[in-house]
Write a structure and sequence with these properties.
Helix content is 40%, strand content 17%. By secondary structure, the chain is an alpha/beta fold. The chain folds into two domains: 187 residues, 3-Layer(aba) Sandwich (glycerate kinase, domain 1); 259 residues, Rossmann fold (3-Layer(aba) Sandwich). The strands form two sheets. The protein has a seven-stranded mixed β-sheet with strand order 3-2-1-4-5-7-6, with helices on both faces. Strands 8-9-13-10-11-12 form a six-stranded mixed β-sheet, with helices on both faces. A hairpin with a 5-residue loop joins strand 6 and strand 7. It is globular and about 65 Å long.
Length: 457
């Protein structure tokens, strides 16, 4: 097999190992049997939202079954995207939004309302379990009084198109919602609520993962206004009712109801004790990718994602240029000593869309930026890949992009095509023609992205 073909096959094994490592059912199967604490005398109700919520629900159902909970004492409802559904005894998995459209829908609102009713029906001898995973913000929605679903959709679309990252988006979402920023937990009248989190936000800030539906930290109206101002939403007249409400919140000193304590373990006004437990994150995927690369014989340089920063550190162009520099350095070293080398990192790039944008995603944009940065000088034996662990890269059916010598040669035959695709954020058609798309389908998990640079002699 040609060196380049081997390198691309290796890259696929590595990104698949990363995705497999954050399979939610596998993570929960490996967790301690008493993950939920003592079984209650009463019922167990499971609610949740996100791309991994179905797999987590299946894992919890298996855990409770093994511990001897009678089936009739278990119930639940989780909200997932299309393509992530599955059958679980006693827990309904409802597909509430289309694949590739990370926005709330009327069905999301209805499903969220049903979850709140279920949580509010519990008593002190019951246990509530909340499954919070990446993508949960769009799959758990209850607009606050005075805000419409259309307002929330307009804000999310506008900020995403302007290149806002997940932290900025969720800062606004928290301030526009009755279920985020602790709203889900405050609805629970159970004795205990155990929150299991599969994190897609770098640094694992529990108040921002899925917009913190079980955290007591109040929404910050000033921070939300600052985001809307910085990205031009206020000047563009986006969601003026929300802007008015945020100004009223600031003027009145309004904040959300508080619980006893402000950390991840707290007690709600109804007396429900809340506990948070992180079961996996981006580091979990990166570490698995590193281990797989090492087993394949690569000497690996690893960079775990760092929290914070904006387009100046996480923009697709900045990331692509950095990957190109790393590729050059690894290629020079491999040319000198013939050793296999890899660079693996986690994170989530951002992209600002122009008004006439095409079709693509942040990972596809990133690998095209790498091609342009290398200026037609693609080192022999080099493969660069960037993949979303959820199988969704922007509003596309691709998970990301991969460039090897064959793809680079195809792109080189159209010297201006890559730059033009980048300028219009239209990476998918070009990468599809060149054979550079990664398609996994919905993976049922989400811990942001993994990037891979491989060099073989």
């Amino acid at each position: 097999m040609a060196t380049q073909t081997v390198a691309r096959a290796d890259a696929e094994q590595i990104w698949q190992a990363a995705i497999n490592a954050v399979d939610p059912q596998r993570l929960l199967a490996a967790a301690p049997a008493d993950l939920l604490g003592p079984l209650p005398a009463g019922r167990v109700v499971v609610v949740g939202a996100g791309k991994a919520a179905a797999g987590m629900a299946a894992g919890i159902a298996a855990n409770l079954r093994q511990r001897g909970l009678p089936p009739e004492r278990l119930a639940g409802l989780v909200s997932v995207p299309a393509g992530c559904g599955r059958r679980i005894e006693r827990i309904e998995v409802r597909q509430t939004r289309p694949a590739g459209a990370n926005l709330p829908t009327p069905q999301v609102v209805t499903t969220t309302a049903e979850m709140l009713v279920q949580l509010g029906s519990l008593g002190p001898d019951d246990l509530a379990v909340a499954l919070i995973t990446g993508g949960g913000s769009a799959l758990l929605a209850a607009p606050r009084v005075g805000v419409t679903l259309e307002d929330k959709i307009a804000v999310a679309r506008f900020l995403s198109a302007r290149g806002a990252g997940i932290v900025e988006l969720n800062t606004v979402r928290r301030a526009a919602s009755a279920v985020k920023a602790g709203g889900l937990a405050r609805a629970s009248t159970a004795g205990r609520l155990v929150v299991l989190v599969l994190s897609d936000v770098i640094g694992d800030p529990l108040d921002l993962i899925a917009s913190g539906p079980c955290m007591p930290t109040p929404a910050n109206p000033q921070a939300a206004l600052d985001v809307l101002q910085r990205f031009g939403a206020i000047a563009a007249g986006i969601a003026p009712r929300l802007v008015d409400l945020l100004n009223e919140d600031i003027a009145s000193g309004c904040c959300l109801p508080s619980g006893a304590g402000s950390g991840p373990d707290w007690t709600t006004p109804f007396g429900c004790h809340v506990e948070h437990r992180i079961v996996g994150n981006n580091d979990t995927a990166v570490d698995a990718a590193v281990a797989k690369a090492q087993r394949l014989g690569y000497e690996v340089s690893v960079q775990h994602a760092l929290a914070g920063g904006g387009p100046e550190t996480h923009g697709a162009r900045v990331v692509g240029i950095r990957l190109a520099a790393q590729a050059r350095a690894l290629a020079r070293a491999t040319q000198a000593d013939r050793r296999l080398r890899a660079g693996i990192e986690g994170g989530e790039a951002t992209v600002a869309l122009p008004p006439d944008h095409g079709l693509g995603g942040r990972n596809q944009q990133t690998v095209l930026e790498t091609v342009v940065a290398l200026e037609g000088d693609w080192p022999a034996g080099l493969v660069v890949a960037s993949v979303g662990t959820d199988g969704e890269d922007g509003p596309t059916d691709a998970a990301g992009g991969v460039i090897d010598a064959a793809v680079a040669a195809h792109l080189g035959a159209e010297p201006q095509a890559a730059s033009q695709a980048i300028s219009r954020c239209d990476s998918l058609p070009l990468l599809e023609r060149a054979g550079g798309l990664i398609r996994t389908g919905p993976t049922g998990t989400n811990v942001a992205d993994v990037r891979i640079v491989l060099v073989r002699p």
